[in-house]
Structure formats: C-alpha cells, structure tokens
Amino acid sequence: MPVVRVLLFVAVVFTGLPCHARDFRSADVYAFDYPTVQAVVQMDKLLRERTRGRLRIDPIGFDDRNSETFLLAQVRAGMLDMARINLAVLNRTAPATIVPTLPFLLKSTAHLRQVLDGPIGTEILDALEPQGLIGLAFFDSGPRSLYSVKKPIRQASDLKGMKVRVQQSDVWSNMMRALGAEPVAMPQDRVMAGLQSGLLDASDSDWSSYIATGHYRVARHYSPTEHAMSPGVLVFSKRIWEELSKDDQAALRGVARDSVRTFRTLQDDAEAASRPIVGASGIEIVANLDKKSFVDAMLPLYPIALENARVRTMVARVQAGN
C-alpha cells in the first residue's frame, strides 16, 4: 500500500476524521435570518451530528438574488443540490401542487399543516419526482393578504385595473384576472423596485414576508384578505439524489422532517413579531374588509384549476377533512 494511503488510513482511524465528506448547497430567495433559511441551518446541524461531520449543508440566502424559477432550474439540472421554493412555481408542471395554492381552500394555518402532514402532503411530494425533484419537506407560510401603494383595497372591485404582482403560476394569474386586476409575474427580489417605481400597484404575502422584504415601507395599505396559503417546499436534485447511498438519502429525509418543527416555531414567532412592527409603523390595516366579495370572485376559478381529475379528487378530500 502506498505511503500516502497508509497515512490517510491512519488519520481517519485514529483521529476520527470523516472520509468521503460531502457538502450540499441549499439556496433560498430570503435572507439568512429568515425562518426558511434558519430551518436549513438546523438541518445542517442535525446532519453533521448524525453523520459525524461526513455530510453537511451550506445554506445560501438572499445574497445571490436568484428567482425561485432560476433556483428550480438549477436544482433540476444538478447544478444546485437543494432549494426552498414556493409550491406555486410548480403548478404548471406538477398539477398536484395546485391543491394547497387554491384560494380559500385552507381555513387556517392549523388546517394547512394538517393537510401537509397527512397523505395528501405525501402525494404532493411524491408528484415532484417526475419533475427531476425529490420533495423533502414543506415549510408552510401564513395566510397571504394583499397590500397596496396608492389606495386601500376593501373589496374585490377595488382591484379593477390595478397591476398586482403574482408568483409565476397560472393559478395566481387567473386569480388576479378574476378580480379585474392585471397580473404581473415577477420574482420576489424585484417586487420592491416594482412597488417603488409604479410598475406594481399591489402585491401579496404573509405578515412575516411583508416585513422581512421591507415592502411595508412602500405599500402602506394592508388588506387582510387571507386569500391563500401557498406553502414553500424543500426540494433536492434527483440527479444528485441518485448518486447517494440509501443511508445518506434516509439521513437527509430524516433531518428535513425534523427541521419542520424548528421552522414552524420560527415562523410562528416571526408572524407574531411582525404585527407590532406594522402597528408601530403607521401602516393602515384596512378595516371593513368585504371578504365575501373576494371569495365570490375567486371560487369560480376552481373549475378552471380542477380540469385534472386527480386534483379534483384531492381537493374534495381536503374539503371533506380526509
């Protein structure tokens, strides 16, 4: 045996240094301190502990300023190991992902988590594999509401003619058209500039994202429509996944599953902390909101979104509590 190999063998055996160490890169469009990124930080910690440092995750936050569509393409191509993206980005190619993004289908955060943690959530994750992705876990978000720059939005008709940012999803574009708005598909990192320049009149998000992105500094009218609860999903490149051993795959699934608890605690804390910030900033939280007008305008979208028989069945199961 060559001298170099002998020395390496001795170093591994007697010092406990891990052999075949591997770093996985994970990306997100949010900043490093955001709950989704910090949940991946927790994954890294757990993975190091369970593999004695052999497997590690390098979380990349908003510094790269990449859109979720770009990150998705990178993961599919195997140029990036893992990413957290919004499920709505996959609506066109994986119809099952439409289910949690439908307007007013999920009644609360608890209802959303119940669905994602159950058989329907498993089916959605499994549906990603034909897309070149391994679905590891959901990082859910709070209810999404509208916020606007120039005027408050109290009823659905107020959106007529307004330019509203939507995620890159047909469901979301159709939703805004049903409200008489002009949908503008735009990556998250460009929304702030769009609101400032007048390219956008309004956008939507949950409380914590509204604060974390700084949109509250420009869009000063917040309408608690709570019209959708589109969650994030942590996806891994299938190309890279197939290179891993069964044990390493199981380790990654395990730490992803365990990170959800950490994420939800951080997310709930961020949501709670965001509301006082909004109040202290003089934001108008729109009162006398006619929520029924939004429900009446959006529910007719269901027949359009539910052309797929499997999606119709899944939605019926959600509505029935199964």
Summarize the helix and strand pattern as letters: HEHEHEHHEEEHEHEHEEHHEHHH
Helix content: 40-55%
Strands side by side in the biggest sheet: 2-1-3-10-4
Average pLDDT number: 89
CATH topology term of the largest domain: D-Maltodextrin-Binding Protein, domain 2
Strand content: 15-25%
Question: What general outline do the C-alpha atoms trace?
Answer: globular
**CATH architecture designation of the largest domain:** 3-Layer(aba) Sandwich
Full CATH superfamily name of the largest domain: Bacterial extracellular solute-binding protein, family 7
Total number of β-strand segments? Answer: 11
* Overall tally of domains: 2
CATH class of the largest domain: Alpha Beta
- Please give the largest β-sheet: 5 strands, mixed
Structural class: alpha/beta
The tally of helices reads 13
* Rg over C-alpha atoms, rounded to the nearest angstrom: 21 Å
